[in-house]
Design a protein that fits this description.
alpha/beta; two-stranded parallel sheet; 36% helix
């Protein structure tokens, strides 16, 4: 059994998340998220009231401290296999899809994926609705601003794990003057740059660097941004496209600038104080990752117990202190104010409205161009 693997020790507004939820509602209207609607009957992962057994979780790295899982196991009598195998949304989807197509979950009872992928999986019939009576702590403590979102207006099948920012993860000693996404194209950093394989993270950032707001971008704007990246890859300016494993390149010094995620930068500081999250002057992206229960999940009761556990403010405080992402749970900032005041003021855990004023929540191409954009992106990733 694998409990918490990988990751390093880390240090540690509702107004912002309200804007995030509202903008996401607008962003997905009319967007083709990959399913065209779930036309079959959606099952509910019914709770039996008996908690125990084994809980297998597929999760992103750098997302949980080393104490939460063993403490949950001790409290609820559940053995957790916590697998950090989500490196990229499409990658985990491809890995699990053969099982999901057959109504099986590869033993997982929780998978953590981004908003757009959760909707895609739901539309394909791969996710179950939640037994809302089984998650009273979640219902009570979820931030009001997150209780409705475009991909899941009633939170019927998703529970937010964390939110965060996409920007630049920078070794400021080696790249001291980075302020813009366009700095990834600066020749002096040739071969020392990585960008994410996540279409919906990387391309909106390039659009912002080109002075185009993602909500105003046309299909051709998206294609042009991909072509711009393609040229940079072929010239050797961009070292490679990566999933969450970009952190390895930054830690080793193989890259000095990466398009990456806010909390990762803070955790990398434990081993290198020169690594920082830089919010580009062009803007950043706001997003959420979600816990979902796949069809065929063998232990929904344990899944619900875990969701309730991490939505207890005291337990969530421990997680937020570790990962420095935006917490979805009420009461965490108040606990920090009493126990760790500097974290209560962290712009990465509790970003102010001013800090995120130039950030976007639009991460989908125009509805009519989704397939064309995704095809062109796949050509880039595959080297075509």
């Amino acid at each position: 059994m694998d409990t918490v693997r990988g990751g390093s020790r880390a240090r540690g507004l509702i107004t912002v998340l309200t804007a995030l939820a509202a903008a996401l509602l607008l962003a997905a209207c009319g967007s083709d998220l990959g399913g065209g609607g779930n036309e079959g009957e959606v099952t509910t992962a019914e709770a039996t009231g008996t908690v125990g057994g084994e809980l297998v979780i597929s999760q992103w790295p750098f997302y949980i401290d080393r104490n939460t899982i063993p403490e949950f196991e001790k409290q609820d009598g559940v053995k957790v296999d916590y697998i950090e195998d989500v490196n990229d949304n499409n990658e985990i989807f491809a890995k699990l899809r053969p099982d999901l197509q057959n109504g099986e979950s590869a033993d997982r009872s929780i998978i953590v994926v981004s908003d757009w992928m959760a909707r895609k999986m739901y539309d394909l019939g791969y996710l179950q609705n939640l037994d809302k009576d089984a998650i009273p702590t979640v219902n009570e403590n979820m931030l009001d601003s997150l209780k409705s979102t475009s991909i899941d207006p009633d939170r019927s099948y998703t529970v937010p794990w964390q939110s965060g920012l996409t920007g630049l993860v920078v070794n400021t000693k080696e790249a001291p003057d980075v302020t813009s996404i366009n700095d990834i194209f600066d020749p002096k950093y040739k071969g020392k740059v990585t960008v994410l394989t996540e279409l919906r993270d990387t391309v909106p950032m390039i659009l912002q660097g080109n002075g185009i707001e993602p909500e105003d971008a046309t299909t051709q704007d998206w294609i042009d941004a991909i072509d711009q990246l393609d040229e940079a890859v072929k010239s050797g300016q961009i070292r490679k496209l990566t999933g969450n494993d970009y952190t390895d390149d930054i830690a080793r010094g193989d890259a000095v600038i990466a398009v990456g995620w806010s909390g990762d930068a803070v955790q990398l500081q434990a081993d290198n104080a020169d690594i920082e999250f830089v919010k580009p002057e062009d803007g950043c992206l706001l997003w959420s990752d979600n816990m979902v229960i796949p069809i065929g999940a063998p232990n929904p009761d344990a899944a619900y117990a875990f969701m309730n556990y991490v939505y207890d403010p005291a337990n969530q405080t421990q997680i937020a202190e570790y990962n420095s992402y935006i917490t979805p749970v009420k009461g965490v900032q108040e606990i920090f104010r009493k126990e760790t005041p500097e974290l209560a003021e962290s712009e990465l855990i509790f970003p102010t409205e001013e800090y995120t004023a130039d950030c976007s929540t639009i991460d989908n191409p125009p509805a009519e161009g989704v397939q064309e954009v995704e095809d062109r992106w796949q050509q880039l990733i595959s080297g075509g």
